[in-house]
């Protein structure tokens, strides 16, 4: 078993990118699967709630956590070279951006569009992270999940992961008493750039390389999204709404909203555009505000409370619904005193 670190009533401010100053009864860093199993067993026997986090990059603590926060630091990367592909087996405690940089340095290409996305590998699978025309599901082969009831690890093939926009089976069926342990990633040796519409103005097709794509994506993200080490945030607070074609046509007759067709005939529209064009004037609740360069990002300017961030989010939600008749659904997870809380229970609003 690894050497564990225990803290009593420690602040979680440095363990969540929103920098919310709440506490947990204990924080335990784990580096092995055995440690994770043992700690979860102790929690269950003692009837103590626990939650497993990586970088704390897509969450908002609503209050002090009444149990144990387990920080996943189970790391390791195995790479197998095949004739036409690279196969990666990556443990869930690895940082996502570190993997992107490592593969690029090794001459293994295909992850560049997902550069600078915060969080760990486990979160990448759970959230089905995505950016600039590429999602985790596009490069995933499988996900290994540990059941903490029987300590059995199951390998789930990509086709059974139920990946969708910022969603997966791991946010639902495998949410409670399960932990993502590792993922399998498959990358083709024949690199083809994915030039999403918002990247076109930065790219000269003839000169594009994996390295230049990586640099372009990093430059854009640094410009648009604040560094959580300097300004607390959880990235995009809201998802881009996916609406029916009929509803999109009505909206597009009135507004020039950036929109993207989905495979199932639905239309994805830009939530950032909606917030920007509502033209909120210096909207701020306490220390909670909207990032000037990317309206989807809510920020903790200094010492924002969870209540201030929720109040700000509710104001945005209601205003967008009234003006555009579009329902903004939070992308982040909310964590209460004993575990996750459904966003619908917080906002008390239904998508009609």
From TrEMBL:
Pathway: Cell wall biogenesis; peptidoglycan biosynthesis. The keyword Cell cycle applies. Pfam families: FAD_binding_4, MurB_C. The active site is at residues 166, 236, 331. It catalyses: UDP-N-acetyl-alpha-D-muramate + NADP(+) = UDP-N-acetyl-3-O-(1-carboxyvinyl)-alpha-D-glucosamine + NADPH + H(+). It is found in: Cytoplasm. GO terms for molecular function: FAD binding; UDP-N-acetylmuramate dehydrogenase activity. It comes from the Bacteria. One of its GO terms (biological process) is peptidoglycan biosynthetic process. GO terms for cellular component: cytosol. Its EC number is 1.3.1.98. Its cofactor is FAD. Residues 20-190 form the FAD-binding PCMH-type domain. InterPro entries: FAD-bd_PCMH, FAD-bd_PCMH-like_sf, FAD-bd_PCMH_sub1, FAD-bd_PCMH_sub2, MurB, MurB_C, MurB_C_sf, Oxid_FAD_bind_N. It is an enzyme of class 1 (oxidoreductase). Keywords: Cell cycle, Cell division, Cell shape, Cell wall biogenesis/degradation, Cytoplasm, FAD, Flavoprotein, NADP, Oxidoreductase, Peptidoglycan synthesis. Cell wall formation. Belongs to the MurB family. PANTHER family: UDP-N-ACETYLENOLPYRUVOYLGLUCOSAMINE REDUCTASE. This is UDP-N-acetylenolpyruvoylglucosamine reductase. It comes from Buchnera aphidicola.
